[in-house]
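Exercise 7. Given the encoded structure of a 543-residue chain, write a plausible sequence.
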């Protein structure tokens, strides 16, 4: 854990645990709390400051747990509430803080509130907790508007009594009505429940989507867009100003604890809008999707880094940095292609990926990310060098996008394959011998296990451990400042703290590092002339 005098979250490295795929203690194929507890020492040894746990609540798993049926309990496949208390206590004992996921835009259609809403009928107080409307056309047989859902199809589903309910995602995820005081009070109560159990903060799912235009106007767009279009500043359901009043209430609650709790927003917003979520009386940090999606090109990375830092400086918030998560193609695979950014055309993402090139670039990107000011997120398995699994059999795919797209978009299962921990054959220590993980692991993952990484001093795991150790022990790295230095085209050179220099060569030519510097860490070996080969990052001591 960081010893910085500043609030811990400003420079924390947070490890994302997709619990369903992390570690399976009982052999049923699904990760669980007992498995997570058994691996907490591994995470502490890795050197992270906190863990962020994807939804662990009861859920029908129509969307991997982001369809919550009870916000105050644990999914039976994962364990019990008492085990959750043990995870929190043991993590704290190892110096790890715990951040949970909260899903406030929608519930599961199995949630007690939604079942009561269906039973109560049109015009009832129970229905006012959600967004129900009469339809258009003869007998109300057409949806109330033309919105499109994130996982394909319309955002509306008709009930047996003829009304329609809104779901920006899957039909199993009805949207809540955040104009209803009961909804606001309920979620503040949920936050307090977990804060009182010792949870240190929350990641807020779809933080930009909770407020809707009550008129529900047509969008006139041909398909779903995850962010508000730049030509639609008054988007009817993305990034509306109404969300800020909600978050001011949440911040007041978080600040009421002796050690204030923290929030990180998942907010896909138009340029210049993110700082509004991070004002001193709102949320603490937000994910930096511009950095995650940025192509691995020096000039574009520098532009994103500068904009990220400068946009948030006015509200005193730190930038965050992330390379992968549970919703995106793993960056080892992305970086093995000619098109390395998530903003590339869809067809570019179907290019074959060069594993060796992707791994080399991923190592360089990891050292760049961990040298930047602010906080950073590590998605489980990236410290092992895991690639995306792009050849999962069709019959095992569970992401709702697969069904909702008519089997044309395979979805996010490829980055959610259970982790390999040890051994030469599946389940690679993820579960007991002979158990079958909920998604199949590739046979060749034996070279990616934590055990294999541990045995190789040049592995990705050792690179991450060394970088996190240096990040903690190098004076001044908790501060938000960085200083760009002149460097050749296609390269980045900047100084941090009290004498840490980061040099990144993303050009096609070797790069000469600054002279008379002590080499602290390198993502790849320097060549015989002491030059940085292409796709290499080094950390140097300057004082």
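Solution.
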């Amino acid at each position: 854990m960081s010893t910085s005098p500043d609030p811990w979250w400003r420079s924390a490295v947070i490890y994302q645990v997709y619990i369903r795929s992390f570690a399976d203690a009982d052999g049923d194929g699904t990760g669980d709390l007992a498995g997570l507890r058994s691996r907490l020492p591994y995470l502490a040894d890795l050197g992270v400051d906190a863990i962020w746990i994807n939804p662990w609540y009861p859920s029908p798993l129509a969307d991997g747990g982001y369809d919550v049926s009870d916000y105050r309990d644990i999914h039976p496949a994962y364990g019990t509430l008492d085990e959750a208390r043990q995870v929190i206590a043991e993590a704290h004992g190892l110096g790890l803080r715990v951040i949970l996921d909260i899903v406030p835009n929608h519930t599961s259609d199995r949630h007690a509130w939604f079942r009561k809403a269906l039973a109560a009928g049109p015009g009832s107080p129970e229905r006012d907790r959600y967004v129900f409307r009469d339809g258009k056309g003869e007998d109300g047989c057409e949806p109330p508007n033309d919105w499109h859902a994130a996982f394909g199809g319309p955002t509306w589903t008709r009930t047996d009594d003829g009304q329609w309910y809104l779901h920006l995602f899957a039909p199993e995820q009805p949207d809540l009505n955040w104009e209803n005081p009961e909804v606001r009070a309920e979620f503040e109560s949920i936050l307090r429940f977990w804060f009182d159990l010792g949870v240190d903060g929350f990641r807020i799912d779809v933080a930009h989507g909770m407020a809707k235009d009550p008129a529900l106007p047509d969008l006139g767009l041909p398909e779903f867009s995850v962010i508000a279009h730049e030509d639609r500043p008054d988007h009817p359901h993305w990034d509306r100003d109404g969300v800020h009043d909600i978050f001011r209430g949440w911040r007041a609650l978080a600040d009421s604890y002796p050690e204030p709790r923290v929030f990180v927003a998942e907010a896909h917003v138009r340029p210049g809008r993110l700082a509004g979520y991070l004002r001193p009386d709102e949320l603490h940090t937000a994910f930096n999707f511009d950095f995650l999606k940025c192509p691995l090109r020096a000039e574009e990375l520098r532009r994103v880094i500068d904009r990220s830092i400068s946009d948030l400086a006015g509200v005193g918030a730190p930038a965050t940095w992330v390379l992968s998560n549970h919703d995106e193609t793993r960056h080892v695979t992305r970086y093995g292609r000619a098109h390395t950014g998530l903003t590339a055309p869809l067809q570019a993402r179907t290019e074959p990926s060069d594993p060796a090139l992707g791994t080399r670039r991923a190592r360089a990107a990891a050292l760049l990310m961990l040298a930047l000011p602010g906080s950073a997120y590590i998605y489980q398995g990236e410290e092992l060098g895991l690639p995306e699994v792009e050849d999962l059999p069709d019959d095992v795919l569970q992401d709702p996008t697969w069904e909702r797209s008519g089997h044309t978009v395979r979805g996010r299962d490829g980055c959610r394959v259970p982790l390999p921990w040890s051994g030469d054959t599946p389940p690679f220590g993820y579960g007991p011998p002979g158990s079958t993980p909920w998604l199949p692991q590739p046979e060749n993952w034996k070279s990616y296990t934590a055990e294999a990484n541990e045995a190789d001093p040049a592995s990705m795991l050792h690179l991450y451990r060394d970088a996190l150790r240096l990040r903690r022990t190098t004076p001044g790295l908790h501060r938000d400042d960085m200083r760009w230095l002149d460097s050749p085209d296609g390269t980045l050179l900047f100084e941090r703290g009290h004498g840490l220099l980061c040099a990144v060569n993303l050009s096609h030519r070797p790069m000469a590092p600054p002279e008379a510097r002590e080499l602290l860490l390198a993502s790849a070996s320097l060549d015989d002339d002491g030059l940085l080969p292409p796709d290499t990052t080094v950390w140097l001591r300057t004082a």
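Remark. The first strand starts at residue 13 and ends at 17. Students should compare their own answers with the one above.
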